[in-house]
Amino acid sequence: MRKNLKTKKVIDLGSSVLSAWQTNCRVTSALVKGLPTALWSESVPEYPRRTVRMIVAHMHNARAGWIRTLGRPHGIEVPTQVDRHRVERRELLAALKVSGDAMEALLRFGLESGNQIPPTPAYVWRNLQLDVGHVLTYFVAHEAHHRGQIVMLARQLGHRLPVSVIDGLWQWKTPKQGK
User: Fold this and answer.
1) How do residues 136-156 score in pLDDT, each as one tens digit?
2) Residue 9 domain-assigned (yes or no)
3) Number of domains comprising the chain
4) CA-CA distances (angstroms) from residue 135 to 63, 118, 163, 179?
5) pLDDT tens digits for range 34-53
6) What domain range includes position 145?
7) Does residue 125 fall inside a structural domain?
């Protein structure tokens, strides 16, 4: 634990990690909610078989895959993957909530296990260290990459995203957290 020099408030690592993950989930969901409906099924330039819907579905399915690898052996329930070709926005937002909660359970488990997610059988490719800091950073970076990709695609495809959606990418405090 470290004291914030300005307020002398003690910052708990576990609370900070979980709050950071919750912020990531809130920002991802806000972007998905705010996407123009016409953009949802647009093809990605140079990759005509890939759509914006598929990119968002990939974020959920990637969470589910990593939870299967890192969490299932420790009793964390694996979210069901979505059909990246057919999933509707409403279904995907619900799935993101489930996978976000499961990822939070994985991080919580790691925090309770000495800030490390205990290794699982190495029968799959794993390219990250299993301390909660690296696990959190890996998943936030993955989703930030795809959020940026979606914003760029919207611009390339002529869909001007509302200012509230763009600003929402940087709205990291909830109204109750204040300034």
Assistant:
1) 999 999 999 999 999 999 999
2) no
3) 1
4) 11, 12, 31, 28
5) 999 999 999 998 888 999 99
6) 49-163
7) yes
